[in-house]
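Why show two proteins at once? Because comparison is the fastest way to build intuition. When a single record is shown, students tend to memorize it. When two are placed side by side, the eye starts asking what differs. So, the first record is below.
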Amino acid sequence: MTNLARILEGRRGDRADVVGLHGEDGRSWTFAEVDRLAGGVAEALRAEGIGPGDRVACYLTNGPDIVFFLFGAWKLGAVPVTVSSLYNASELAESVVKTDPQLLLVDDRRPGVVAELATLSAVPVRAFGPALPGVAALDWRHERLVEAVDVDPEAEACILFTGGTTGRPKAVSVTHGGTRGSLARLARVSTGTDGESTAAVDAKANLIALPLFHSGGQHSLLFAFYVGRPAVVWERFGIDRLAELMQRFRFDNFFFLPTMVFDIVHAERDLPFEGVKSVLVAGQAISWPVRRAFEERYRVPILVNYGSTEAGHIAGWNGRDMKAGLWKPGSAGRVYPGVELEIRDDAGTAQPTGAEGEVVVRSELTRGYVDDAEASRELVRDGWVHTGDIGYVDEDGVLFLVGRKRDMIKCGGFQVWPEEIEDALREHPLVHDVRVLGRPDDRLGEIPVALVVREPGGTVADTDLAEALVAFARDRLAHFKTPRRIEFVPALERSATGKLSRVSPAGSPGGDR
């Protein structure tokens, strides 16, 4: 039962005629139809010479077709390499070089990129839809009953690219067994049982809000099918698109990135959150002002889930925790049952309760980075995944995060965490968004600098507002945490997965304070 395709085959067996997949364009498929179309993909890939362990890259617009591709590849024991459809030709070619797939699947949405790729890569290319100039179509749109092959739990299941907030995205290899174990843990926390198909046959659909090239999107899809819920897959997040789908499907829960919650909070229109029991947020920390604004506006609690592409689901809160009064403000959540977690210092020594250090988790989810052997050795050591997050666990087994190891700013010998400064500055009414990073300083080593997006319509001059923001932060933070410089920018750079970048833009204008 290790093969991830067996999840879909299980739903074909126990709820074949239930609609399991919706497209935003009104199309829908039963679980049995999804399984048979995945079988059509498997047969078509087999005809191309693809077999167990072979990597197949996809550069496809987010939508239902990627669902058929994923399960079709898994049925063969092949390894999907999901490349962001936002990449340009050089980024796509770089991804292909890193992962060495036997085949690349594309669609007709970005023909210029596909045409340019021919000069950058020699990997065979097939169109997953209509044929393109010089690119033959993969003939897969036939329903076929194909049973999944057996795979080892440690077999490579997929290659996903990390968000890349501080550098170039890395290609992460995840396993069949590790992924299933992560799904079972989340099911145990969410539903009280780690068994499959626990949802009622008439359960509401889950919106797969994150793209399927993202680990969060894939886990959301797999989790929906694991518990037996239908999935709604769209092209991309947007307020108007979200509102229309909420009216149509009456979702009872959501899984969003913090950036999506930010956009919802700042949208002029009200969204129909009636009937929504909770919103789960993961991917990166959500700021307190954004969280509070959302909960006050819509009266829907935000739950958090802490994990990563490399380590899986680690900690979080669920509705039962909230009702039982276990929730603690500012925390990442209770460490999930079955998760082996330690807090370690720089020497690798496990720290006692309440002491800060790097969050390290024993995990079978990842085999490391396929494109960076040195980084893989740093990531996984003796079966323990080093997350790069700094935090501590209290006496109740609740995890608190204080920052990213590589994002920490050393200012005059003091440790400064950007997130703490960002949360303070977001409280100011003229700050729309903010990102704090470290800049070299001859005297202090590094100084915290805040990149600020102003709220629209303000009349305060940049120099005056910069001075006011420094004073605002100084009233709320220790002196060494106060940003030494405010730089105003029109927007903050985001990665392909929606995370805000920690990379400093060159030549940013701003005022020194």
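Second record. Ask yourself what differs from the first in the token line.
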Amino acid sequence: MAVETKLHLIGNAHLDPVWLWRWQEGYAEIKATFRSALDRLNEYPDFVFTCACAAYYKWVEENAPGMFAEIKLRVAEGRWVITGGWWIQPDCNLPSGESFARHSLYGQRYFMEKFGVMARVGYNVDSFGHHGMMPQLLKLGGMDSYVFMRPGAHEKTLPHDLFWWESEDGSRVMTFRLADSYGNWASNGMEDKIRNHRAVAAASGHAFMSFYGVGNHGGGPTIHNLELIHELQERPDMDGIQLSSPNRYFSEMKQMNPDIPVIKDEMQMHAVGCYSTHSESKAANRRVEHQMLTAEKMSSLANLMRGLPYPMEALNRAWENVMFNHFHDIMGGCSIKEAFDDVRDFYGEASSIGAKAINAALQKISWSIHTMKPGVKSLSKEKDWQLWEQDDLGSPLVVFNPLSWEVEAPIVINKKVAGVTDAAGIPLPFQTVRASRTNTSDKWDTFIKGKVPAFGYQVFWVYRDKAFYVVEPTDAVRAEGCLLENSHICLELDPATGYIRRWIDKRNGGRDVLVGDGAVPIVLDESHSDTWGHGLTHYRDELGQFGGAELKVLEHGPLRATIRVTSYYGNSVLRQDISLQPDSSDVHVKVRLDWREQHKMLKLAFPVHVEQPHAVFEIPYGYIERPANGNEVPGQMWVNLSGDEPGTTDSTESTTFGLSLINNAKYGYDVQDNELRMTVVRSPIYADHFGERDEEVEFMDQGVQEFVYVLSPHSGSWQNSGVVRKAYELHNPLLQVWETYHDGDLPQISEGISISSDHVMAVAFKPAEDGNGWILRCQEIYGREVETELSMPSLNRSWRSTFGRCEIKTFFLPSLLHEPVVEVNFIEMKHTEER
């Protein structure tokens, strides 16, 4: 066998810290597996061990420091090889784009701090699928190669198992798909595996990798494994076999530069049911991911503006919780029931940390805003037990916007009042709406819409008794019977079913948004599916639909009109509060589902009135178009279905129409022809891999869950729909703090950032990990190259930058103003600093 066709044997131990066991058992197994690997290194001088996941190393460091010291020596020796520079082996479809950045930031910096090395090879051998922006995320995380196993050859045909993988922005990583498994559980099959892989190497004309070692519950390479390998190496017909690592393999391949294909695609699909299992943990993940970014932004602004100490240690601990919950058997919803009790605790701790940081930051800033009114000599609550208002002077409500563009959005004031003005004293229209409390007659809140600057705030003045003359909106919204209407749309509900019977877009010549009923709750049979959805591509076996609807008008307008639709199926109840606001074609739906079905799935279906449909899905830090073939696929906050208006002969911009669906908790979708479906819930058995089902099994997602979705019709391409900003606005509502009268040196309205291009957004703003400046991460969101100007007044910084298609840029803003703004990677290092 020629040198270039040799077989690299990769000794590894795939470790699931959570799956059919809880994290405490995984913790113990990691220590035992690392001890076993160290024993093998002592026993076999040529043995090389490969292991990923910074979280595992931190556990060992904390609980077995003597063994950790041994590992450090073996890493320095080069025989213990660190791969996969992420905190854990996450699900590679469901975490947000910024979450992947944090896996690199915290994982790689941990490895550099403790071992003096960073992973050069991305390593997710057990994750169920891999989104199309992975190459850029890997490159920005300091990794230029990648190893994965799923989807296998039976799930996705690739021209070659070694290839260049390219993402939308043009980033490339050399990628290897494992031919079968990341390990072996029966030693008697190992020789056949090695022979088969050796033959593949010979046929390919270049080297190949073969992974060995007991996996899933740890274990790693065994004595028998290594004895067999040494025996095979002595045979003349088995030349070219060597104990190796992924680092060595990719280094040799790049030097050899074989003729391998370039693939620009996602690596899907495996275990399609995992995108909709265990609704609670998925909803918590979405919420806490956004909360963490808000906590960082607000804490950073409070530090810059007021000197509030930044809670770095606490927020890093919270991120570790979030990243651990990204593990593929957690995020994929395929672990045992007890494991999800721990998942709830991890998200709960992270959320509590984030909430405390947000509150401290907002109140530090709001307390420094000048809100004093003439005539106020001291604070008194003589007028009202809740508000500090005196003499009809109003009470200050400070409203914050954590997003990088000005947002006009609903603000719910938790008190019934007579008038509201903005900081300039301009009276605002308002509406009295039902509160969540029922405190004698005090059961009403006040609803307004307000504009708040980017990364900034505005003070609104709330008057308990003083009313103002307000020009009512010319586009008042109304609800009557089965109709919701404003100047943009008219939406008619079916009184018997509660489905959307007719939806007219007035802006586009009175065209129909849907063809047929919309928001149809379809119940599907999934008794043929295990928890993962192994072997399946779609869920289409319809059993029935929710019906027997009851409709009730909750809000009449003029700022918000809402109709509540309650429908039934079996023992389950679906309640949808469908709302419309003035001057908008977006329909907001607040859902409360009490689900009592087993081995069934619920989808909401929307047949969009278009031809030649194109389905585009948000993926982490990007988007992808997929065929409208009915397959179950993962998506993030939004999906868009656009196409030609019926009757047109071309697909020019003027004849293109579409519908975006945005939600705050769901990840599973399918599109067949012109029908878009969102998967709301599945109820398989916990951790069921086609096992023996008896009366003792427990089913997922039984009981009440709540979430929100938004339907946004548009003309023109999806890039012109504003869907990305709308999705972030849904997930990042305006924040508020009641204040009182006090002097301060901050104005009543403030902007924290300005970005000239509307398709570049700042996602993260935080202190640099090294403590000598600030980090601002931005992304181009619509696949269009652009030059933009950015400025941050609190840092006295302005600069220009050019973004490529779907490019992510991380800017380091030094504390010293004479030092220029520079681009860094996710690890907060310049490219020349990478090791």
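One difference worth noting in the second protein: The mean pLDDT is 96.
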